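@channel sequence for tomorrow's demo:
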Amino acid sequence: MNLSIDNALHGIAELQRDRIGPAVGDSFAAQMARLSCLLLRISANWVDDAVELRVEENAAIRDLLGEAAVLLDAPLTKRLQEASGSSDPGLRISVLDVENHRLRGLLIEAQAAVEGRASDPAASSLDQRIWQFLEGTEAKRAPRE
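structure tokens (generated this afternoon):
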């Protein structure tokens, strides 16, 4: 097994759970050891998932922006088309987060414009897909043990 941040955090959590926690006599300290073990596992999983989650999320937003560009008017259409054809500028989490923030800002603009066309069935359908995407995104970003 290669040493990586997620592997190291999982290893520390296991050590704390299996060796250190049981040896702690004070009930408060033992509870804090169990809590820190949980936090280590959550952090390890976050590190392991971070890039994949952001890359997938950015791609999904670009797809939604491309769909919105077809339904909306200039000048927003041009910005949405450009964003839908863009790619992630790198794979560092900080870089992906900046890109995600930029794309989400455009998605908010697009959704507001789409919601203004409630009588258009295609716009209503896209609005629903945007809401489903946002709900799914929050579920995927929820901490896992």
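heads up for whoever presents: Residues 5-141 form one domain.
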